[in-house]
Every structure is written in C-alpha cells, then in structure tokens.
Records
---
Amino acid sequence: MTNRRRTAIVAGNWKMNTSLQQASTIVSRLAELQPTESTVKRVLIPPFPWIVSLHSAAREAGFLVGAQNCASQDEGAFTGEVSAGMLAPYCSYIIVGHSERRHLLGESDDVVAVKVHAVLRNGVNPIICVGELLEERESGQAKSVVACQLESALGGVTHEQIAKSVIAYEPVWAIGTGRSATPDDAQEMAAFIRSKVGELFDKATSDRVRIQYGGSVNAANAGSLLSLPDVDGALVGGASLKPDDFSAIINAAL
Ligand code: PGA
C-alpha cells in the first residue's frame, strides 16, 4: 500500500471507443472487480452520448463520471458543441487540453485556458492535460513547453480552483504508443509541475494539487508509475477499455 500525501485519482478516458452495450459491460465488470468504496477516486470518462445512461450504474459501483471535452461557451449558437453546464449534473471531471485535441484538432493554449474557466465556473473539476512532443523532449524543451502550457491554462485560476483541479502530465509520444515514460522521467516532470504550481500559486497549494501521469499506463507498469512521490494517479486510455486491466491499475494506486 502506497503512503500517499494526496487522494489518488485514476481516470479512464475511453476516447471515441465503445458501443453503448460495450460501455455498460465495462461498468458491470468493474462493479464486480472493485469495491463500492475505495480510497482511490475512480473516474470513467466515456464518449458524450453514453454519459447520461451510464451515470447511475457507475455511481452505484463507486465510480465518478467525467467528460472528454466541453465547449468554451456556456450556451448559444455553437452547433455540435456541448457545454460544461450541460455536463455538470452528470460529470465530476472534464478533461481539458488532451493532446489529441491540441494536436489533431488544433486546440491552442488560449482555447484550453478558456475551457478551464468554462469547466470551473460550472462547478466541475478540470483534468488539465499538459505534455511535450517527442521532438520537444529530444531537443531539451520538455520542461519549457510544459511550463508554458501550465502558465496559460492556469491564468486567472484561483487558489480554491486549482485545489480542485487535476493536472495530467501526458507526454505526447507516450500516448497510445505502448511506450510509457520511465518512472524517473515521470517523477522528474511531475515534481517540476508541482514546483511550477508553487511558483504560480504557493507552496501549500502545490502540495495539495493532484498530478496524474498518462501515456501507455497498463497493468504491468502502473505499480512503478503510481508509487512515485509526485504522481497521484493516472489518466488511462487504451487499458481503461479492459476492465480487468483498469481494475489492476486502480489497485496499484491504493
Ligand atoms: P493511452 O492514452 O493510455 O492509450 O496511452 C492515454 C491518454 O490519452 O490519456
């Protein structure tokens, strides 16, 4: 059992995967595998259309529900968008700035920052994703890239709001590639993120903020990544679609 300073949070980002039937099968299996109460906050982040129907079964199984994205605006003529306020009755967390949205869908730091505020003003907790590209790591810019993303995403966020937020360090080269960061690299960046939050807010705040690692987390590597002193949980993609593996990852955070 890990001696944690902060409540661990393990979230499964299903991305654009699952039919409704598959989604409910995952929840049922997780309900069998996991106790209804846990010291780990467990979050399921399905595609938008499944959120409402999965919500009750997930809650009964002790899982919170989250969303993968939201609109920058609260309402209006924004065809195809879903606002944080619409998600708030069902979602405890909303992912903001996932690298797939930054790099495949062109979301800029400015858009990410606006969305962080949209999530917070609607009373939901953001999971704010940051992380460098492979070429940025190889050219020694990983920390400066992450620092810029943090400065932008956390602009105007209050001490109370950052305490409820989660920061996910997801090196882009590790996402969906089967190549996770080494525990040393993950710890070094998580500690850097914590110190950056300390600079932007204060030490007490940085001690409280939860930092997840994400990128090819699986049942085999979760133990070494989730026992790192500055890593308070995981944002899991592919392995969260396999309930037995996801359950083992959650157990690694106990
Ligand atoms: P992965 O995805 O676990 O499939 O690498 C992680 C993520 O995108 O959050």
Note: The chain is about 45% helix and 15% strand.
---
Amino acid sequence: MALDAEVTPDVAAEPGALLARAGWKATMIQPLSDAGVGSRSPYLRKQFSLDKLPNRAELRISALGLYACFINGQRVGDDVLTPGWTSYHARLSYQTYDVTKLLREGENTIDIWLADGWMRSQIFGAPFGIYKTPIFNTWGDKIGAIAELTGDGRALLATDTTWRSGLTPVMKSGIYFGEIYDAREENVEPSLGVERIEGFSKDVLVPHEINGIRELEPFPVVASTTDKNGRTTYDFGQNLAGYVHFTARGERGARVTIEHAEVLDKDGTFSTANLRLAEAQVVYVLKGGGEETYKPHFTFHGFRHARVTIEGDAEIVAIESVPITSAVVQTGSFECGNALINRLVQNTIWSQRSNFIDVPTDCPQRDERLGWTGDAQVFAGTACYLHDSHWFLRKWLRDVMVDQREDGSIPHVVPDVSWGHEDLMPNFRGSTGWGDAICVIPWVLYTHYGDREALEETLSAMERWVDFIWSISDGPIVYPPRGGAWAQLGFTFGDWLQPKGTTVKPLPTIGDDAAATIYLYISSDLTAKAAEVVGNEDLATRMRERATKVRDAFQNEFIAPSGRLVYDDQTSYALAILHDLVPDEMLPRTVRYFVNSIERTDGRIGTGFIGTPALLPALVKAGAFELAEYVFLQEDVPGWLFQVRNGATTIWERWDAIQADGTLFDPAMNSYNHYAYGAVCQFLFESAAGFRADPEQPGFDSIIFEPVIFPRLAPVAAHHDAPAGRVEAAWDISGEWVNFTAVVPEGATGTLVLARRYQDATLDGEPIDARRDDGKACVQLEPGTHRIRFRVTGEPEYPVNLSPATNRPMI
Ligand code: BGC
C-alpha cells in the first residue's frame, strides 16, 4: 500500500525531496500512557469527522520506536516493523500510504500503536567480554509518533497535543525480548493525553528510501512432536526471520507461550543457547469465546522450530511460520547438476531474506541482529545478484555516513549502537575489513547498477576512512593493536572465524597486520577509482599514490623472495592474488604456495569472513580451475557443502556450527543464519555461469561472459535481472564439447572471453579466431541469444594433488 513514489529511486535519490516540497506541520507527540522501556505498549488516538470523502487520502507517518497504525480499526499498509531502522539520531524514515479506502464519511478514528523496537528495547549486550551489560534506550527513552493526513492535497489531520493516549494489549515487547499480548486487554479506552517531544528535530525525517519490510508466503508445519510436559515442537522446515502465526481456541485467561529455535540438539532437544540474552518468546493470553488468531506486532525471531506451551484449557487450531524481509524482489537464479549446490544457493537466498530487514544484519536470532559492516561488505556482491539490493544498500550507506566519526573511523555496526554509550562500548569502531564497507559497497553499486551517484555521495566518506586507516600506524603497513584488544581504536577482526584446521596442530592464519594492510590497499584503490569516475582528479592521484605505497610496502613486508607469503595461509594468498598484490614475476611461485596451502588441508577451507569470498575467485584467477572445483565440492568440514549435507536451510556462521557427530559447536556463539559465507554465490554467477558487469560500462550495459567449466557442476543455468535487462547463461557438456548459451539483453552488449584451454570455439556456428595477448579468445556479442561451442583441451596447470601434502613448491 505504500505509494510507489516513496520507493522509486527518483524520489529516494534526493533525501528529503518530498519534505522540501511540503514541510511537516505535525508534532512528534508522546503518549502520557507510556511508562518507559519494557512497559506496556501505548497508543495514540484521534477522532475526526469528514463531511465529504476525498478522492485520494494520504497518510505520512513516522515514529520514535515502532508504530502500527489503524484507521477505523483497519491496519494501514502491509509493511511491518515500521518505520524501519536507521541511525535514528540523524535519519528517521517516514512512510506514505494511500488510505483513501480506509476513511468514511462522518466519524473516523485513527489509532497509532507504539512500541520500543530498535529505538529503546535492548540492542546488543552479550554474555561475554566487555559487553556484559545489556543496553536499553539506545537512541532515546521516549517513544512517540508524528503523522499527517491529507485529502486531495489538503491537510485533514496532524498529530498535535489534542490527541489522547491509552494502552494496547501488547503488555511488553522488544526486538530480542519478543512480545506478550493479552487479548483480554483489547479495546481499552484512552484515558490520558499526550505531550510534545521536546528536542525532536523534524530535520531527521526522510522518506523511506526502500520498500517496507514485508511478509512472504508462510510455511506450514512439516513435523511436530509433543514432549512429556505436553509441549509441542513444530518444525516448519525452513530457518527464517519472522514469526509464528496461529489460531487458538480455549478458555479466557489461558496462555500460549511460543519459544523459537533454529536447531534441535543432537538428541532432539530444543536448543536456545545461541539466543543468549534474547528471550525471543511470544506469550498470548486468550480472551476466550471462539477462535483467536494472532501474530506479533513489534518483534521478529530467527527460527525454524517453535515450541508451544499451553497453560490453562486451550488448543492450537492452526499454526504456520511467516517470513519477513526487505528483500522482496528476487533478481537471480543459479542451478546446476549438483543438488547440494542448488540448496546452498537457496540457503543463501534465505539468509539474505532473513538478514535484509531494513538494515543488512549479521543474524536474525541472538542478541545481536546488528548491521555488522564486515558482513555486509563481503556479501554485497552476492546480494545484488540474488535480490534487488540497490536502494537497500544505498539507504544503509547513508547511515554509515552519518555514523562515521570525526576521525574517519566507522563503527563496527551501523546503525551505531554504541552511539551515546561510549562508556559501555569504548572505541567500537575502526576495524579494517569492516569499515571498508564504505569503500567496497559503493563500488559494488556502481558496477552492478551503474550508480555513479552512489560514488559521488560517498566519496568523501571513503577518503576519510582510508585516511583513518593510514593514521593507525601513520604509514602503509597497518599494525592494529594486539588481538583481543576490542576496546582499542584500530582493533581489527582480521579474518574473523578463520578455521585453524581440524587437528590439534593449528594451521597458520593471516596476521592482523597483513589483513589490515591488504584492506588499506583495497580501499585506497577503490577510492582512487571512484574519484576518477566522478572526476575528482586530485583525489584520484592521491589515492593511487597511496595504493602504490601500500602495495610496495606489502610486498616488502609480507612476501618472501621465494614468493611465499609470510603468513602462509589460504586467506593471505587468496586476497593478495585476487587484488594484484603479488609482483608478476613472482606470481607462479606464489600460486604454487597458495595451492600448497590448500593441499595441506586436503582441500578443506581455511578462510574466515574476509578470506572466503576471495578463495575461489583467486584460484580461478590463478588458473587453478580443477582445484577450485575440488574445494567447492568437497563435503567435509570446513567446506560449503558440509552444512548443506547436514540439513542446513540457511548459511551457518561457522563452518562447523554443527559437527559431524551432530554436536552443536560452541552453542552460545553460533548462528545458523549468517549470510557471510554465502558470498560464494557471486562466484557461481561470475565464474560457473560466467557473466559479470564490465566496470568500464557499469550496470551490465556491457556484459562479460567468461565461463569456467567445472565438469562436476554440469549442467549449469543462471539468470540475472540486471538494470540493462535479463542476462542469461547456461552450459552443458556433451562428449568433449561444451555447449554454452549466452543471452545479452536488448540495449546491452556482450563480450565473450574464453580461457586458453578452451579451443576450437564457434559462435553461432562461426569459428572464433580472435585471441588476446593473454591467449584468451575474445569476441563481441550483439543483443540476443548466442550458441557457443568449444572443447576443453590440455592438462590442468594445477592438477588436484592432495596427497602427500607438502609445503615444498614443485617449481
Ligand atoms: C557477528 C558478526 C560480526 C562479528 C565481528 C559477530 O558477533 O555476528 O557476524 O561480523 O561479530 O567480529
């Protein structure tokens, strides 16, 4: 029901554009019935009369906290958790709804229910380290609403101090807490007034840049069991973010309690250890006298299983789980001959849906659900293939920018929950790999969607970030404070959760200094490129020089003359090779050591959050196609398919979240719905299906088709709805021939690039003769569908040779 105008890029491109056209007359008002954080949800009410119905009525509305608005008892719009989540102190979204059909001639009533939400219910605080204290009232301790109703452009009503306030049946709610709803407390008349919220500045109001959070198709129960205490656990078959929707029947005062869990323990026990401080419970008290249907208003959970406890005489008549997300438009698909991979892609889609809830978050279940910048940074490329993520990410980048500190550092999470709580969370900002989101994501938006404005808007924030990282050590090599020193400025998460191997003898991992220095290089380089695109030559030159300095210093400090990296682990090699940090003459030897780092783990993954997305692209770049295929397809831990084989329906936070014997690993620091490792999907589109946007003509105006044939994936088919139109690619193997189909949308152009070992190629029946200097075949593609044939010839440059593993390079 949200007006289209509110979500189209044209309007969103100018924050505050609508506002400028028509300033707010309404007042941000606070219900006097509100007793503060954790108390019963209040509501605001106004009765008004209309002599004549307007042809078109619009409500624009926002709140401090969360709101749900009803006109004449009917819910306004189908968005949930409005007004969404932003860095509230600087930006607060408002929605505009067409409410024409909800109004009637004569008396009308508008009710606005309010709840604590992200604004003041507990956000963060975990049972470890310095974060033991739960934090409440992050952005303020007052909740309230601002709303204006217009009819045919004329003001009909606005929030002001004549409104009344009362209490809703929501007895308590919180993002982590869940919700308690007492149906016996419905329709309580307002008994108090309201007050203007002093100090609220309407300047923070911005039109919601994206669609609201929406419900998706519900999931029915696939299995259920009842324990000896009479509690029934329902399995909905899909891990997701959302809530349970149920119908119950029973006596007045009977209570239905719903607990949520992502997994069951080895012995089938309902496992909530990973929720930590998040109670994540819903309690519904029946009013009695017939069927009662309920779903929570002001919370959501990350779960696949729900355990229902009934106190009193009542029964569940119907129950389902309802996913919610901001990622409502799917724009990509990838399928191949391996069912586990297909499920992995689905799992990534579900992890994106679950974690694109107005803000890109780490997870939807435990006492975090935060906009961890590093997670978004590594996943952005994949996000843009799978769902329309353009304005979702741009909206978030605006929050990143307002949360960036004076010194250029960027909080680890945005919206910044340490805002105003520096005492509890000192220096909760400035990690490389995380804050680099400000440089990486605008570039992703530029290449993927052709969005030059994203670069213009963020350029100075990029520059300030890069200068901040340089300032940590005042030089090209970054020396972050010692590991574990969370509270020290410049602390880095490095390659977070990088596995040390499966044996008692740990494998090498990347040093924080190398990880931070590599990221300083990546971000300096991207800032230089962005500056060039927007025509800021001075900055482009400064950043190019800086990137060169960092690269030279990296080579001096972290690459031995033999070509081996000082930190001899998969992440170091993958990042250094992918980002061209290794001198050309050394590359073959470095690649050999890279290959060794994989042979040493028997093809298992040795990378964490920042290394993982780079691993397979780096192997492909090095020409080690067979090894990339082997690593991707191996089903042991650590590996992408291990979790799929073990029943995952979303992407796990840790490679070994559930161990081979079914034991839950470190139950309190474990999420089964973290999209970071799903970033491998970008590789599936760009290498396995083989298409990507050409940064020279971004937005898929020019599409590069460069498939890598992984025989064990055959047949492969993928599509992506790019701004330029639908791009498709598919291939299969027939004998020694590969048949590859590429579809270039109208108005775009394509370039086909074929690896050296792909020979005797034809394009639509005609031989392809042209080869580039690097030996790759290269030919232009017109819009339309093209049939390409070629043979894979020759021996692999880096055959898979996993045993005996040795550190000695074979050249
Ligand atoms: C979060 C992450 C995040 C990380 C930073 C975790 O607790 O869930 O995904 O990036 O902390 O180290």
Note: The first helix runs from residue 9 to 12.
